[in-house]
Task: inverse folding
């Protein structure tokens, strides 16, 4: 998902305290998702109403 954001020109802000996960999160620059993969991820969008506001409903 981080790679998907980068390929759209967005800046993802991953959060982790786990060293191994930090390495994984930084390892997104040696590959690209193809058009089919990008389309599949775009298709997951359920619209703005599908997300809950964690400030209103808790974490």
Result:
């Amino acid at each position: 998902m981080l790679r998907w954001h980068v390929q759209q020109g967005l800046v993802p802000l991953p959060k982790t305290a786990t060293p191994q996960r930090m390495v994984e999160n930084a390892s997104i620059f040696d590959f690209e998702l193809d058009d089919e993969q990008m389309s599949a991820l775009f298709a997951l969008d359920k619209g703005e109403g599908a997300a809950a506001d964690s400030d209103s409903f808790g974490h």
The chain has a mean pLDDT of 88. Residues 19-26 form the longest helix (8 residues). DSSP finds four helices and no strands in the chain. The radius of gyration is 14 Å.
